[in-house]
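Both lines are quoted verbatim for reference:

——
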Amino acid sequence: MGFFQKYFSHHIQQRISLKSKLAALRISYSKKSRNMGNKMGKFLNNVKCKKSVETPSSNVEEEVNYYFTPSEDLEMEHNFSSLSSETHDDTSPTYVCEICVEPRPLDISFNVKGCAHFYCIGCTVKYIESKLDDNVTRIPCPVTNCQGLLEPDFCRDILPRDLFNRWGKALCESAFLGSEKIYCPYKDCSALLINDGKNATKNFRCPFCKRVFCVQCKVAWHSGVDCAKFQKLKKLGSDAMLVDLAKRKKWRQCPKCNYYVEKSAGCYYVKCRCGNAFCYNCGAKSNRVTHFCSECYH
């Protein structure tokens, strides 16, 4: 009985001492500290008391050592980690976004260059996008009468790549408002070019796609046709332009399907894709055996 009395007496005294200290903590600390103390109390209640008995010989009195180990290691880790995270959340500085008017953690904020206003990153991106939709490239701070200004390089890290490139392109265009802007007419290029008016040239080679186009007509270069005639044909429609091109290139129409055919080399005997064979020189129906037109042979 002496051994068990000693064991329980020592255990009870330690529990009383721990709970007394815990009670003192609850009295002295604030509400946040009391919350921390409650969690500490739950942790201590999950602690077990173990004994280690050493018996070198039967004639020597048993020596008992006491030490504390948590009942569940994972539970202890969870208790302390949750306690730490809650303390961090409570004490983390916050700000109110000037756009959505919601409190946000300060470490995920974005402030405008030249002023002290803070915004959500998401709100800032949407604000810039809305301004570009309105063709506004000089974007000020959203707060009225604020001198802060949003700049592409300053905002680059938070913007999607396509939005950043769109902003840069809009700034380039606005920088040349007083100049004549020309776009490369080829759809797969469409590069923005500036006509400085120094050279009165009509055909111009795009520095990006390396193809030639007419500066005055703003179309692919119309070889063999001056701009006045081209504009006249353009008003008549694409059919008139095709007929004019066929005359200049000396294309022939198939007598059967009326599609234009161009001969690149060889004799005058041609065969259309519809299957009809005719003489490219005179247009008469022919084959290699029966057609001996004097105009076709020299």
